[in-house]
From TrEMBL:
Record protein name field: FCD domain-containing protein
InterPro entries: GntR_C, TF_FadR/GntR_C, Tscrpt_reg_HTH_GntR, WH-like_DNA-bd_sf, WH_DNA-bd_sf
Native source organism of the sequence: Cypionkella sinensis
SMART domains hit by this protein: FCD, HTH_GNTR
Domain named HTH gntR-type: residues: 1-68
Entry keywords, A to Z: DNA-binding, Transcription, Transcription regulation
Keyword Nucleotide-binding recorded: no
Keyword Transferase belongs to the record: no
Domain of life: Bacteria
SUPFAM superfamilies (UniProt xref): GntR ligand-binding domain-like, Winged helix' DNA-binding domain
Amino acid sequence: MTLAETAYDALRRDIVRGVLAPGKPLRMAQLSERYGMGFSPLREALNRLQAERLVTSIALRGFSVAPLSMAEMWDTINTRVLIEQRALRLAMAQGGDDWETGIVSALHSLTLQSTRAAEGGADEQKLLEDRHHGFHLALIAGCGSSWLLEFFQRLYAEAERYRYPMLQQRNVENHRDIQAEHAALAKATLARDADLACDLLAEHYLRTARFIEAQMTAAPQAQSA
């Protein structure tokens, strides 16, 4: 990896996980000290992140982490549903044995890691996040469209900025059996039941979005109490 790619990965990870908070100014000197690299690769990484809407730039004020908002969250989720439903239909129409095997393997890995993460620490949680991403990517991997896969990656990262803080609270969604939702989605996809699979995918994301909306609405009230 080039220095610019290393900078991009590090900055993107810290933005998605909230280590670099929404709205935080991204001063070049501070970033250079934090990541141990020069201004040039950092600037290249920031420009790339700006194109992905994870970073904003204002003349004379420089770069900052893109803010979060309820409207942006819903726009992200609704666009994600549209993109991934299209990719899922294409994958079901075109995917072969390798695609099916990838889904089965990804679901199995995700299910195992979900159990481990429930009793483990930060490393187990990080691995769970990686396998969660891998499962959703496996569902649409056979779509045959590099553009749809790129949009998936960008929208997944943006959605994680809202979802990640919820992951830090154990059992915050204990009214849901999320692994059962994943299993049902995989089953419908492997059965090539396009309508059911797309409905399950949409509801899976929308339930998370409604939960995040409730948490974001309650947060200011909790702070003022």
